[in-house]
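Its record is quoted verbatim for completeness.
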Amino acid sequence: MKLLLVGMVLAAMLCDSAKRTVVAALLAGLDPHIAFELGACTRGGWNLPSYKTLCKQLKRLERALKKGEKAGDGTTVNLAWFRLSLLAASIPKHVAKQIRGGALDATDVPAWATWTKVDGKIVSADLVASLGYRSGTSTRDKGIFFGRLAHLVVACRTAVGNGDPRKVGFKDQVPPYILDIGLTKAGDSTGLKGVEVVFGAQKIAPNLKQVYADMGYTTKPRFKLPLHKANLDIFMDQPKDAVRRAKTIVVGRGKNQPLVENAGSYFPVWMPHRLLTLPKRLAPKAHAEWYAERSKYAWIVTHRRPDGAITLKCPQCAGRIRTKAKTANPPPRKPRKKNSSPAAPLVAADVKPGEYCCKGSTVTLTAAERANVQPFPYGTPAQKHAYTSRNQSENGIKGLKDENGLKTGWCRSVEHVTIEVGAIMLAVAYNMAIADKPENKEPPRPADPAKTPKAADETATAGEPSDKTATAREPSDDEPAAAAATGRSP
């Protein structure tokens, strides 16, 4: 088995291929020392598998992974286990612990087999491939293709904010390792597979907390709900109709708190009407300022529950703004210090005399109700800048396709499990190439002072032994001189 895995990784790393002929040729050219360690070379001579034997053993491996079997320790040995085990081994452990953000995207994998239509049905030797749509790039036009979609989660930086809608910071700058990869039909829904690869990535990077995805995933309810239940933050874009539509909803434990929802942000009903929906034909600077001004009125997340529910707090009760409305639950007053920040600004509000700002300061949204909520209010400069972390997925796709050969002809098979195993090997080779770069090497650990041998007493003068150093003794008649000099008995 080790010999087969080495051959497939070498084929992916050196030849960008998953062809059986390439694997057999590389195994035949192994260095004798490596072949000896793998058991392919003994004192009696070479013991390499023939091409026919190689194909037979790889078929056995693929059938076992497709079927799935229980190991002695209860682990289900299947294609998912195989994929995550190899990808986890290709990422340094010290880096996997640092990863807190993952960028999710999909790319087309054209089928090697051709297709035709018979009586309105697609007929092909590849029974899993289907028709799908792909966007255009600098090297190809957009349009219909026949094949599969590869869904990737690539490690990326994480966004942090301080409450300023115009500023965002980044931390955990990590190399673009591929955390998980999975293949589906080109025409299948992306939601469920997206959930699978995100949770797979979380097994490899257990501190993963932020997911950056495009609308191909985030417009699917089946994608967002499982991730929110797992308390993962989703950074997303919004379709134009959602941005230009505001609706009034009633939330809270007693369904008594009316709020205005727009593009995943929640606002009080007394917010000025001009800030409800985005005006048309705004210049880029005016566009950013409009969203920044509106974010003052947003109900902000103050607490998260293990089941994915979140608690939002009224902006006036939180002390972020002041209006002519009465405050339902004002924040505790603190004595103002010299040179402290000024009090919250008085802002416009459509309130009636004697009206309260809210019904009770906070409301709780379930995981299903928080579908489009993001860490930063949508449209603000902070949210737009934070969303650029998704570009890391483009770098991963570029490295996997342009540099590691995930393109037409890399695998001349019509079996889905064969193609998926080949794609896993390409991802493993891609990760190993990143880890091998000098700038990504693990820094050497500092020496442990407790294990460093103590120096002799610095106060000892030349020619005089210190009190911590053993002195030579006169040897006895039956003791060797060397033993007496070291102070040890023979």
User: Anything to note?
Assistant: The chain has three domains: 1-77, 90-236+375-441, 239-333+343-373. The CA atoms of residues 334 and 421 lie 62 Å apart.
